[in-house]
Amino acid sequence: MKNMTLTATLTTLICTPVMADNHFDPDPFIGGSVIYSKMENLDIAGADIDDTGDLGNFQDDRSSWKAFAGAWLNDWVGIEGQYIDLGEYKDSGFKLDADAKTATLMVGLPIGDHSRIYAKGGRMWWDADLKAPLGTSASREGSNPFYGAGVTVALMPNLNLRAEYERAQFDADHIKADIDFASAGLGFMF
User: Fold this and answer.
1) pLDDT by residue (tens digit) across 139-184?
2) CA distances from 125 to 86, 104, 109, 114, 141 (A)
3) What gap in Å lies between CA 73 and CA 106, rounded to an integer?
4) Which regions of the chain does DSSP assign to beta strands (E)?
5) Rounded to 5 degrees, what are φ and ψ at 135?
6) Taking the model in full, what pTM does it have?
7) 60 band by pLDDT with thresholds 50, 70 and 90
8) Residue-range domains of the chain with CATH
9) What is the dihedral of CA 82, 168, 152, 76, to 10 degrees?
């Protein structure tokens, strides 16, 4: 909650001068992407797990999707929220199904009309359902830091191609892991 309050405060401080200056109209956007993911640095109860099998590689069966919406408040600063389907992982009778929501502050460098290189950072709120053999199940939720970088390239005046690489660092219930997301998608600017 403190991080969300800090993000809102920083956004207000940055945006207030922008909103007062009528020379720039914010660029709101929405879109969606296909995600490929991998897991690294898995640690369960203090024990490093070196072999994560297919989870440690970008695989087609580790694909999922996300939807995003936000606004570039000026040429250099934007805000964004995402819904991410983290995908479903199955192995040896275990099934993990997770999703997440993010809130991020973005800092960009314009490289043309509606095109830019950017970095972003914020918070991810996630929940996961685990099903094990013999009908055992559990649910977990938490929040962790989230950051990344990307590029948008204008295909048409209101349509962008978007490529990103993002990382979330999970640390909950004696389980730690870094999950990387590579994504490509389309964004529509109003």
Assistant:
1) 878 899 999 999 999 999 899 999 999 998 877 766 677 888 899 9
2) 12, 12, 27, 29, 8
3) 10
4) 27-44, 47-48, 63-72, 77-91, 94-112, 115-131, 137-156, 159-172, 175-189
5) 80, 10
6) 0.76
7) very low
8) 2-189 (2.40.160.20)
9) 90
